[in-house]
């Protein structure tokens, strides 16, 4: 809800911004179309976006969710790969103070929020004082902060339960669109040998579909979490659209051929069904529909994927895990990074510093740089025992808060988000995902759910105000 007095104190920037954008566009058209022209056009788009976010904060929420799903696209700025999630975060940093001045919505901060601020600060501290190349690791710490900022943006913008529900639906809708694009990319590569959205040799001779995500493993984790959320919502809502979307995202997860995501998704879906039985929302009729949806996915996927998965799992040997190329690379990076951890055990070596300390081309000549695949190990390497403790405290605070909330009352969106994180718990042990924004959007929605629930249970607090539409 807007305050008329506060809103009146800020002149409407629309005419000025459009005037500036028009002038800049004309300059670009009249002049040449070289780099200066591109910068001018970018500035015009940035001004228009800031105006949009100030006047329509819901557009900022949608932009965050969409940008987080497409980190594959990047431009190099100052030696750092700027992805859509980073650019949207920077625009929101400019727009947010103006919106906060207009808004009367109160943000209820929870303990996890303060702990996350400490984790961001720890990244900068270790990057500045423990890195072999502080100038570079501080840049990466800033990049990590931009990936984390969507958590706080959502906490500020989603203070109303109805807005949170809409945001969850947007996440699921974007997930379905991402799955459809990934499915088209995969089957197009198989039928017509196209390469959009697919790395043909991701797993040796086996393709990996990434769609617009960073890589195939990340896409699988993202869509696996979406499928778990959709099935959770279906057991609550019983709408056929959730069941149909569940099948699409499940197929999208499968075509990426990620073993960790496949196992994590299967385990999480099992938890969803067990929870459904306990709550009485899973009966024979519902189970029959879910089974039919899974069988349809299996029938579509089996002719193409069965051979790929057989080859992927056949390379695993209990007696020698290094027989698998991917596992061998993870073993090497873990062993080598352990030596770095021993040097700086308390504060770490700086954000994403492993690529400065290890030459990845020794593993694969096509790899120029990389990261540690395991999230806890990467956090330990970069920020030390102190950073890992802070990070664990943050996740623990969210988990405890979510369990307390769900014990008091079933909260479908929170249940879906919490069960979706089970997939990440599996997949992030093999592929680090917290350096990208999509995981922080997911975690941020959990924080929003906890805060809005606590706000509604506090008799001394003012009623929640809806997000202003304009």
| Side-by-side strand order of the widest sheet | 1-2
What is the SS-derived class?
mainly alpha
Oligomer: single chain
Beta-strand level of the residues, as a percent range? under 5%
- Give the helix tally: 17
Q: Write down the secondary-structure element order.
A: HHHHEEHHHHEEHHHHHHHHH
Distance from first to last alpha carbon: 9 Å
Global shape = globular
Give the C-alpha Rg.
23 Å
| Overall pLDDT score | 86
Low-confidence stretches: 1-33, 463-470
List the domain count as a whole number: 3
Portion in helices:
over 70%
What is the number of strand segments? 4
Tell me what the structure shows.
The protein is mainly α and 470 residues long. It has three domains: 102 residues, no CATH class; 194 residues, no CATH class; 154 residues. The protein has 17 helices and four strands. The strands form two sheets. It has a two-stranded antiparallel sheet with strand order 1-2. Strands 3-4 form a two-stranded antiparallel sheet. Strand 3 and strand 4 form a beta hairpin. The N terminus and C terminus are likely disordered.
Key descriptive features of the protein:
470 residues, mainly alpha, 3 domains, two-stranded antiparallel sheet, two-stranded antiparallel ribbon, 17 helices, 4 strands, globular, disordered N terminus, disordered C terminus
Describe the structure concisely.
This protein is 71% helix and 3% strand. It is mainly alpha-helical and 470 residues long.
């Amino acid at each position: 809800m807007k305050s008329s007095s506060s809103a009146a104190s800020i002149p409407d920037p629309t005419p000025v911004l459009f005037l500036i954008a028009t002038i800049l566009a004309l300059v670009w058209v009249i002049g040449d179309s070289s780099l200066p022209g591109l910068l001018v056009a970018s500035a015009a788009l940035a001004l228009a976006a800031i105006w949009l976010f100030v006047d329509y904060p819901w557009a900022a929420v949608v932009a965050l969710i969409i940008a987080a799903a497409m980190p594959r696209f990047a431009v190099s700025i100052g030696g750092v790969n700027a992805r859509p999630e980073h650019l949207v975060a920077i625009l929101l940093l400019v727009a947010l103070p103006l919106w906060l001045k207009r808004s009367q919505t109160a943000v209820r901060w929870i303990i996890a929020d303060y702990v996350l601020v400490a984790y961001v600060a720890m990244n900068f501290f270790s990057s500045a004082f423990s890195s072999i190349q502080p100038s570079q690791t501080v840049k990466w710490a800033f990049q990590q902060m931009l990936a984390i900022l969507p958590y706080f943006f959502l906490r500020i913008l989603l203070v109303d339960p109805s807005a949170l529900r809409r945001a969850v639906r947007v996440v699921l809708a974007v997930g379905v669109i991402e799955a459809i694009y990934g499915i088209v990319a995969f089957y197009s590569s198989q039928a017509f040998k196209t390469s959009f959205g697919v790395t043909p040799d991701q797993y040796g001779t086996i393709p990996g579909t990434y769609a617009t995500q960073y890589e195939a493993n990340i896409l699988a984790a993202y869509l696996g979490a979406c499928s778990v959320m959709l099935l959770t919502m279906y057991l609550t809502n019983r709408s056929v659209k959730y069941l149909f979307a569940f099948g699409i995202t499940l197929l999208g997860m499968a075509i990426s051929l990620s073993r960790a995501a496949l196992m994590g998704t299967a385990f999480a879906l099992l938890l969803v069904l067990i929870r459904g039985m306990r709550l009485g929302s899973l009966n024979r009729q519902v189970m029959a529909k879910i089974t039919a949806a899974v069988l349809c996915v299996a029938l579509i996927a089996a002719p193409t994927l069965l051979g790929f998965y057989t080859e992927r799992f056949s390379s695993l040997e209990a007696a020698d895990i290094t027989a698998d190329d991917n596992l061998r690379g993870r073993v090497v990076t873990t062993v080598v990074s352990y030596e770095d951890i021993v040097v700086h055990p308390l504060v770490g070596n700086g954000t994403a510093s492993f690529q400065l300390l290890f030459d990845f081309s020794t593993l694969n000549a096509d790899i120029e740089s990389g990261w540690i695949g395991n999230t806890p190990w990467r956090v330990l390497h970069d920020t030390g025992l102190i950073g890992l403790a802070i990070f664990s405290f943050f996740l623990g605070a969210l988990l405890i808060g979510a369990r307390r909330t769900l014990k008091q009352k079933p909260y479908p969106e929170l249940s879906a988000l919490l069960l979706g994180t089970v997939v990440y718990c599996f997949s992030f042990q093999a592929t680090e995902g917290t350096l990208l924004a999509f995981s922080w959007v997911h975690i941020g929605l959990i924080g929003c759910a906890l805060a809005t629930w606590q706000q509604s249970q506090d008799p001394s607090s003012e009623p929640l105000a809806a997000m202003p539409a304009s």
